[in-house]
Amino acid sequence: IAHTAFYMVAAYGIYYLSIKLGLNPVLSMLIAVLLVTVLGLLAYKFLIDPIREHEGAVLIATIALAMIFQEIVFLIFTGDNLSVDALIDGFFELGGVKILYQQVLTFGVVLLILLVVWFLLMRTRLGLAIRSTAEDREVANLMGMNESRLAMVTLGISVALAGVTGAVIGPLYVLHPHMWMEPLILMMAVVVLGGLGSIKGSFVAAFILGFTQALVIFLIPTGAFLKGSIALSIMIVVLLIRPEGLFGISFEEER
């Protein structure tokens, strides 16, 4: 749950390093991603790992961690809206629509991340171990996999990806202490709609949500504030009609 909070911390870290300290933007991004990854590993080691057998406690602890990050950011940077300079300035027009070069860069980085994650999970031994552990931790342990170490590696990778996301998306959005909440809503909606544990489902669900939000904003030019509500509404409908999601395993099949 706290992954989007790490995304926020990375964005603010880049702001501090590049704007306040005057470091090179690319160097600032690398440092911020590294620091966020270390922070995530420490959080896992000392907060999540001791209670990881209790899912409810983990959920509460990660929400509390996200709130702590939010308050720390608020104390250091106040609640003012801040911005980070784009890596690539300028824009071009396509069909009468202005597209920022930073948006193109962000799309390329996100696409690369998706391909790397897919390859890692589907074509490597580490990915096989991750998927096996996600399916059944006890069986994975019986097969000789170090479940605790594998969980730490997985979390380190996921937090690093959250940091990279904050680095490339940060210049496109206004920074504020609550910026982690909307991505969290979208993340939960994607997982619920696509189906828990389904990579293909996550891709399809993300496209559906993105298209739906863009369509609503197109039809209602002043409806940008509805984005979070749209995601929540879709999530509620899916939970009521098909709780396992589009590509998840049905409860009957699982039994």
Labels describing this entry:
mainly alpha, 255 residues, 11 helices, 3% strand, 2 strands, two-stranded antiparallel sheet
Walk me through this protein's architecture.
This protein is mainly alpha-helical. It has two domains: 172 residues, no CATH class; 76 residues. 71% of the residues lie in helices and 3% in strands. It contains eleven helices and two strands; from the N terminus they run αααββαααααααα. It has a two-stranded antiparallel ribbon with strand order 1-2. β1 and β2 form a beta hairpin. α1 packs across α7.
User: What proportion of the residues is helical, as a percent range?
Assistant: over 70%
Q: What's the overall average pLDDT, rounded?
A: 87
| Anisotropy-based shape | globular
Q: What's the number of extended β-strand segments? A: 2
Helix and strand pattern = HHHEEHHHHHHHH
- Uncertain runs with pLDDT below 50, 5 residues or more? 251-255
Largest sheet, strands/sense/barrel: 2 strands, antiparallel
- CA distance, first residue to last residue: 27 Å
What is the strand and helix layout of this fold?
Blueprint: H1 3-20, H2 25-48, H3 55-77, E1 91-94, E2 97-100, H4 101-123, H5 125-135, H6 137-142, H7 147-169, H8 181-194, H9 199-219, H10 227-241, H11 251-254
Antiparallel strand pairs: 1-2
Helix pairs in contact: 1-2, 1-3, 1-7, 2-7, 4-5, 4-7, 8-9, 8-10, 9-10
